[in-house]
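Renewal narrative, Specific Aim 1. Our central claim is that a sequence can be written position by position from structural information alone. The example that follows is taken directly from our test logs and has not been curated for this report. It begins with the structure tokens describing the chain, in the order in which they were read.
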């Protein structure tokens, strides 16, 4: 009798619990994955490097709002290419001072891709170039090449490379570039050729003497003629001395 009571009690206990859940209680769902950390682009660019000029431009044109919305309210994320302050001070031609408001805004949008790309992603991205930027359109696209771990960018007017990864955590990637990306849609397709710099060899370099000799092909012939002339004068002098000595002996 006692045995039956024990068995019945165990069955009742099992019937009130299913996989640790009490009957009648709600089933617990898995905890949601944490949302990506909010990234304040204004704060990031203010402290991450010498990007004050670019930051001023995207703030004044309200482009920062577009970038911020893409960064934190979409699953695609964003990739920014940010020129250093020195890139703006070095730019002589073409000038940015003659741009309209819409052109200046497009120039800022041209420095971002509407998707998050890590550095490793650019290896595949180089195979599908050109890639459209936030500015949109074929003439607002960038070409990428990936060489030995270095990402190179070309906008037609500007050829540069990623010199530093400022921030590369989904959904925001910020990469430093050394030049301003100038789109053909604004500055045209008549791109002047890059100047060829002819670097003269150092005077102390081992090739300097070779270059000097090559630039004066008749220098060796002049030296040879000078030696022959000196030898002829010495020969005549010797014969004159010998002849005078013989005349002295005979007379």
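The sequence written for that structure reads:
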């Amino acid at each position: 009798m006692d045995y039956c009571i024990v068995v019945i009690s165990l069955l009742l206990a099992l019937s009130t619990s299913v996989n640790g859940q009490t009957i009648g209680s709600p089933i617990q769902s898995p905890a949601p994955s944490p949302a990506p950390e909010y990234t304040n682009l204004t704060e990031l660019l203010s402290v991450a490097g010498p990007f004050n000029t670019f930051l001023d431009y995207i703030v004044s044109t309200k482009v920062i709002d577009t970038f911020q919305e893409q960064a934190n309210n979409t699953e695609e994320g964003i990739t920014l290419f940010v020129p250093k302050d020195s890139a703006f001070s070095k730019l002589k031609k073409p000038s940015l001072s003659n741009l309209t408001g819409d052109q200046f805004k497009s120039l800022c949008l041209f420095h971002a891709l509407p998707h998050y790309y890590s550095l490793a992603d650019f290896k595949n991205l180089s195979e599908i170039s050109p890639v459209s930027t936030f500015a949109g359109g074929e003439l607002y696209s960038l070409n990428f090449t990936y060489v030995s771990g270095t990402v190179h960018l070309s906008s037609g007017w500007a050829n540069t490379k990623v010199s530093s990864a400022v921030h590369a955590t989904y959904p925001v990637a910020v990469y430093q570039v050394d030049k301003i990306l100038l789109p053909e849609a604004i500055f045209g397709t008549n791109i002047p050729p890059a100047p060829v710099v002819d670097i003269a060899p150092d005077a102390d370099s081992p090739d300097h003497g070779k270059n000097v000799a090559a630039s004066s092909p008749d220098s060796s012939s002049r030296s040879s003629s000078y030696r022959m002339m000196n030898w002829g004068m010495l020969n005549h002098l010797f014969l004159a001395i010998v002849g005078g000595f013989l005349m002295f002996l005979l007379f």
